Amino acid sequence: MIVGIRRIAPAIGIAATLVSSGVEAQSAPPNSYGTAFAVTKDGDLVTNAHVVAGCTAVSARLGATEFQGNVVVRDDNDDLALVHLSNKSTHFAFLRKRPEVRVGDTAITFGFPLPNALSHDGNLTVGYVSSLAGVSDNPTYFQVSTPIQPGSSGGSLLDSSGNVIGVVAKRINPEKFPSQGDAAQLVNFAVSLNVLRTFLKRNQIALTERDSSKDLSVADVGDEARLFSYSVRCAPNNQMLSSTKPSGADAPSDDTSERAVLYEEDLADGHGRRFEGSVAWRMEPLSAQGAHGPRALRGDIHFLGQLNITLIVSESLGENRQASCKIEVTFDTAQSARGQIVSVPGVLMKIGEETKGAPVVVRSTQSGPASFALLCDENYQQQNLKLLKERAWINLPIIYKDGHRAIISLGKGTSGLRAFSEILRE
């Protein structure tokens, strides 16, 4: 039996329709909208992958305040995504730790459905967990009776203690559901707690959990959810960028400054030393062919009184002529008290500035007195490109000639995320 399932449409009148035998899904339009919720104090939000499909940047609104965020991870298999805000989150959600979710548990959600028609302050709805599996016993989802509408996608599903038990995802499409004249009612689905927990762990997001040991009123759960629930809207990359850039004669070059941080080991201080800097990303020709030839992504990195660094990211062709990636780093250490740098062992990609990094598999060689080349391993091409393109922060470990170690941490920002995607092809 084929059952029509509809993801909660990211825009009015546009629905991504799924069927249990061979998923059929329309990609979300570039101006789609939905709901997200904070899971850490560092500005990490969870939403559905289909809400942010085709986007690298979103606008996230909490109450009357609007924030800018980057899409750092999107998992289409589990329909989950991570958005990282440029600001920290004052409030964030707790995941349910114990007991296990059961059929009949209260299932509450707070979201922002139909923003062009309903309240901009959000909507609270309540129901129950109907089943611990989705269509055809799919364990990725819970079935719930909680009413949801287009725009509810990505919102937290909460129990009576106010703890997260799932992520609102989709609903039955009544037009495709086989029936004897009766439309399906209150047959909706949320990504399960176990899938959400695994997704966060896989992406090095620390879990904040607590037991569901108290029974709050629905109104109290709603008051808490309102503090960590965001209305999110995805905009085309060029629209998001152009809205923040001046135009005409006063417009600057394509350089966009983002944060850079230098963490140096200090034997006298276990916490080490931290220096703030900046990185400006820009595209530039890779050869004498100029604008008509291949291009590279250049990052000019400055730490006042410490280091000046040039980082070049480009494609390279391996022995089998397959496109891979190459990262070149050149140091100016004239102002550094530590002096010469003798090694750049590798590169890590991170979701956020303070999260754990995942390594890009590279071969590091010294290409000059102050230059190093990191060549991506062709055997890990897909993994390497995914990390380089999707993660918002770059960590470069370095070793000085005197043996001291340091880490250079670079933020991509919206411009860098887009440029990495343009330079590095699958």
Short description:
The protein is mostly beta strands and 426 residues long. Helix content is 11%, strand content 43%.
Tags for this model:
426 residues; mainly beta; twelve-stranded antiparallel β-sheet; six-stranded antiparallel barrel; 5 helices; elongated; disordered N terminus
Q: What report would you give on this structure?
A:
It is a single chain. With 426 residues, this protein is mainly beta. The chain contains five helices and 28 strands. A hairpin with a 4-residue loop joins strand 27 (393-400) and strand 28 (405-411). The chain is elongated, with a radius of gyration of 24 Å. Residues 1-30 and 236-256 have low confidence and may be disordered.
SSE blueprint and pairings:
Layout: E1 4-7, E2 17-19, E3 33-38, E4 44-47, E5 57-62, E6 65-75, E7 80-85, E8 95-96, E9 106-111, E10 123-131, E11 141-144, E12 156-158, E13 164-172, E14 188-192, H1 193-202, E15 209-210, H2 218-228, E16 229-234, H3 237-242, E17 256-266, E18 269-285, E19 295-303, E20 307-317, E21 323-332, E22 341-343, E23 347-350, E24 357-360, E25 362-368, E26 371-376, H4 381-390, E27 393-400, E28 405-411, H5 413-423
Parallel strand pairs: 8-15
Antiparallel strand pairs: 1-2, 1-13, 3-4, 3-16, 4-7, 5-6, 5-16, 6-7, 9-10, 9-12, 10-11, 11-14, 12-13, 13-14, 17-18, 17-28, 18-19, 19-20, 20-21, 21-26, 22-27, 23-24, 23-27, 25-26, 27-28
